Amino acid sequence: MLTTLGGAGIGLIAAACIGAPQATAPATVAAPAPANAGAAGAAPAAKPPIAGSIAYFDTDDDPASSAWHDKFNAAFQAMYSGVQIENTHIPSSDYQTKLTTALATGSHLDMLFWDTTNVPLLYAQGKVLPLNDVMESIYADVGGKDKVSPQALGIYTATNGDIQGIPYYSEPIAWWFRQDLLQQAGLTPPADHWNWDFLRQAVKATHKPPDVYGVGFPTGRNNGTQTIVLAFILNNGGHLVSQDLKSVVFDSPEVREAYQLLKDLAPYLPPGTGSWANPQQIDAITHSTIANGHYFGRVFQNVQQQNPSLIGKLSNTLMPYNKQSTVNLANWGAHCVLKSAANPQGAKELIRFAFKKDQFIGYLASTPGLYAPVVPSYGSDPAYLADPTLKAFDAKMVSNITTGSQNTANIVQEGSGWQVNPKGATISSSLVVVDVLQKILVNNESVESAVTWGAGQIDSIMKG
């Protein structure tokens, strides 16, 4: 199971549980009417037989997100007497190991709440239930299939039409920068996006150690490093495998250019990035250790709560790219129900309940600015945009997160037209793209030889 699920690490698992401050809990969310209530004047439909326990894993271990789950579960239990919910909040660094152990030992586990890489593989292994019935009911609840992101649906729809999992939201990556330091250096950032030439200029011009370093990103052997490597590879038109998954295309000019960029930026890194992961990356942005760097939308909340003096000085944009591209790295995740579930009907109803508008917006507000929902209208709803944290920042900064979710790529689906790669989780947990960077930065190997080596490792995984 450690091999089939991709080892001890999880690729691109959400930053939702990383670098979280001691946040205040979101506003209390009222429970809506039951999802199966009958039409006016008609006899109410019988509630499905879901009494008993529903057990699920999630990676929402930060205080605000955990508090949302408590309210969400309580509201659901109020609708269905006799239901108990057992949810386990797991730090992302431990998630893969605990999931693998639970599946291997037959532990009580009915569903996964927003899993980013395992669902296609679990489906291929015959371990999850098709959820076409749940998806159809959600279409009815939200006003039609056209209200749901087609890209997200594509990721979790098998070639035979089975819905492998119910997509919930994505976490688009953004590029954060100190606009005040750029202005002091006489640089005006492009209104839309940066190219790599401007990125190099900005990093060099704002590099004033030890007060502030020009750029920051992890370089250790972990998923935090994998995030920045994949972001630059994919938005430069590079890929790991071909669209049909039949060949490895990693050894390409586009991939080598991305690694060369990271090599060029390395002299402007702070000391110690070899021990950085996601928590250190967001801390460096929040506390102004670095002038430029990538991260997800959690930065809004961390800055507002930990360093509000930075508001007005910090800005963001889409990830800089070298060639004209509209691809942005983002983690799409989905809920799924296991075939071994003791209460599959209960898990299905709980997933449907998560799509009720007030429940969903309550989840978005638990970490404002981080999530781009699979129902895009929820992300632009006035009830969400009125959040005090979001209103503290320039509206363009918030909209950049939404824009970054509109055409995404990741290790499971590398772009529009790419087949979903069931072995994406295994490639991710192998950290081969990180090993290539370490060969370049630590072992001083050439970019060309390191990328060629990496292509061979990916080929072995795809054929394994």
Plain-language structure description:
- This protein has 464 residues and is an alpha/beta fold.
- It has 2 domains: 15-172 and 330-403, Periplasmic binding protein-like II (D-Maltodextrin-Binding Protein, domain 2, 3-Layer(aba) Sandwich); 174-328 and 415-463, 3-Layer(aba) Sandwich (D-Maltodextrin-Binding Protein, domain 2).
- Helix content is 41%, strand content 11%.
- The protein is built from 20 helices and 10 strands.
- The protein has helices spanning 63-79, 92-105, 118-124, 132-142, 150-155, 179-184, 196-205, 223-234, 253-265, 278-286, 299-306, 344-354, 357-366, 376-379, 382-385, 388-391, 395-403, 424-430, 432-441, 447-463; strands spanning 52-58, 83-89, 111-115, 166-172, 174-178, 292-295, 314-317, 328-337, 372-373, 408-409.
- Strands 1, 2, 3, 4, 8, 9 and 10 form a 7-stranded mixed β-sheet that branches.
- The longest helix is centred in the first third of the chain and has 17 residues, at 63-79.
- The protein is globular.
Structure keywords:
seven-stranded mixed beta sheet; alpha/beta; 2 domains; single chain; 464 residues; D-Maltodextrin-Binding Protein, domain 2; 20 helices; disordered N terminus; three-stranded antiparallel beta sheet
